[in-house]
Amino acid sequence: MENRHRSESVTIAQSPDVLYAMVSDVTRMGEWSPVCKACWWDDEARGAGAWFTGRNITESRTWETRSKVLVDEPGREFAFAVNGDRTRWGYTFEPVDGGTLVTESWEILPVAEPTYPERFGDRAEAEIAIRADGASKGMRETLAAIKRVAEAG
């Protein structure tokens, strides 16, 4: 189960409500994510159960994913799962002295577990480790960018 969950945190001099509003507006994700360059809502629905599409770009490829909002609690938490049940990304907002502790998390969900050995065979654990390390690096970059934007006003 190692490498199935990662999280990174940063304190941002802004209120939980402001930070939640930034992050839960998925159309802004391209402003700070190093991989997800654009997102759009799939229809007019918002909140838990709503779906959106994201366009991801790396040096080696471009792809789109659909994600389902799992948790939508203003000022507290926003989370979604890629393909509705594969990989969970979440943000929590905790008031602290000097602002808000924002934690971004990434987790491979149980339904996705069997797909790694099916796809990668004996390399499954190595591939999961690569994804986990990439998620950690991306979360640090994303949180730093959110901090810059939020604290700039």
UniProtKB/TrEMBL annotation:
InterPro entries: Polyketide_cyclase/dehydratase (IPR019587), START-like_dom_sf (IPR023393). It comes from the Bacteria. This is SRPBCC family protein. Pfam families: Polyketide_cyc2. SUPFAM superfamilies: Bet v1-like.
